[in-house]
């Protein structure tokens, strides 16, 4: 992806959105399936025509949600940011909302300028399912010891080669090292939330981290085994990829450009 | 509705359920529209056949949700309560969950034995909609003063004739007096929640109470005007009926039979 040089009236806008991913096949446009990017660009073209270039802050999988997701938009159209936000919120489906829209420096890029991202993973931890969380949290029937898992998960923190926590396909090439800044497992009533921040994530990395913690809960992986799983650099030693429905991109951080960014709070 | 006398092996069961009402046309069976009662009875008949009599604790409107809803079930089938709960949770759609099932006295009736009910009404109070609350909260763009409305709403509390807060149709006959035990308006971030407990509710009563408070917010009804609206006993002086989507039956109380009842918490 190349940065289009700023010249003449070319503008660069940063849009912060939130979306319910249940009915979408992820962010990135693909044939024969509705994606967030396609819905977004369809609405955008009704407002400013087809002269634009849109970059999302990350690929997200089918069924994954976003409390906060960032998009950079290059266009020569002179529409004011506040008007674009309002117009998009009229044209977009109800499952996508534009929270913020503002001008940014010409070299800003939603994906490459990002310094870190935070994901949360929601688990409804009760014998009986929650009818309001179908598609919005993993339903896990057996009692989770959140303190045990929180302690075990601290082994994820730090700069590691996360090959063991990556679905290998053609997407991931080169350096598999990522810097995990924090990982927490907390409980509020029957809802267990895992939260992880890192400078970047490999394909399926959060979902495999969660799946591995659930294997620890089940006694199939020892609580102190995560360091040796990391060291093996082999996907077969980690746990299964947890379902997409519990995963939310929660926060996207940019250097010097973070103060006004705020996602929606789905903890309500 | 008459109480079927307990005789021989006739049993009386109390089932506590929760449901996402977005796709249902309320509780009560009707032609040409899917209701919670129909979905429930369809699942039930797969487990115990057609020999049963089901009574719900209240009618609920199309699109209204229930964190807790109670059903009494008369049947001669010998199935154990725990097994019935598990089997129903396998057969029911994911939008309905059985939280509890237990034997109760022969004269218990989900509707007539009820001593009080509590409803909550959720309002997403932000300029931008929340993509996760489409169908689960009213979206209200202009800033709500929850303290102003909480204070005004205290005039609802007490034993009053609520004719002004009732949609008149053939449903409501006789005494229009209800005893409102408590009413509160609170905020958590952008979510405003109204909560009301009463010994009973007239048709659309909560939604008209909410609509009237929103008219007070808009300055179209004075904050101290509720007592005189009540006194007029005329629907034309109260506010509009607020949308169904924000309304949740939250708790159903029975005398001496309340300790184990607990709904799901949708505040997550």
Automatic annotation (TrEMBL), chains A, B:
The annotated active site, in chain numbering, is 61
Superkingdom per UniProt: Bacteria
Ranges for the Pseudouridine synthase I TruA alpha/beta domain?
A: 18-113, 152-255
Q: Which residues are in coiled coils?
A: none
A Gene Ontology biological process in which this protein takes part is: tRNA pseudouridine synthesis
Q: What class of enzyme is it?
A: isomerase
Under catalytic activity, the entry for this protein gives: uridine(38/39/40) in tRNA = pseudouridine(38/39/40) in tRNA
Q: How does it assemble?
A: Homodimer.
The record, for NCBIfam families, names:
hisT_truA
Q: What is this protein called?
A: tRNA pseudouridine synthase A
- This protein's species is Ruminococcus bromii
């Amino acid at each position: 992806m190349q940065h289009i040089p700023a010249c003449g009236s070319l503008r660069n806008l940063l849009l912060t959105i939130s979306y319910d991913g249940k009915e979408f096949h992820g962010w990135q446009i693909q044939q024969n399936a509705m994606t967030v990017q396609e819905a977004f660009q369809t609405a955008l073209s009704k407002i400013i025509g087809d002269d634009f270039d849109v970059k999302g802050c990350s690929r997200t999988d089918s069924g994954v949600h976003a409390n906060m997701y960032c998009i950079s938009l290059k266009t020569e159209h002179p529409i004011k940011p506040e008007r674009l936000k309002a117009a998009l919120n009229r044209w977009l489906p109800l499952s996508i909302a534009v929270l913020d829209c503002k001008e940014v420096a010409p070299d800003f890029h939603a994906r490459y300028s990002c310094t870190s991202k935070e994901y949360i993973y929601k688990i409804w931890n009760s014998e009986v399912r929650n009818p309001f969380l179908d598609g919005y949290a993993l339903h896990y029937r057996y009692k989770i010891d959140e303190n045990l898992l929180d302690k075990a998960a601290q082994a994820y923190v730090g700069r590691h080669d996360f090959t063991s926590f990556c679905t290998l396909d053609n997407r991931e090439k080169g350096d598999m090292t990522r810097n995990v800044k924090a990982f927490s497992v907390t409980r509020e009533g029957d809802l267990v939330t895992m939260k992880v921040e890192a400078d970047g994530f490999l394909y399926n990395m959060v979902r495999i981290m969660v799946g591995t913690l659930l294997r620890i809960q089940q006694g199939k992986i020892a609580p102190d085994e995560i360091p040796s799983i990391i060291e093996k650099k082999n996907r077969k030693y980690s746990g299964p990829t947890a379902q997409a429905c519990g995963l939310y991109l929660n926060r996207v951080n940019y250097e010097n450009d973070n103060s006004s960014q705020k996602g929606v709070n789905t903890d309500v």
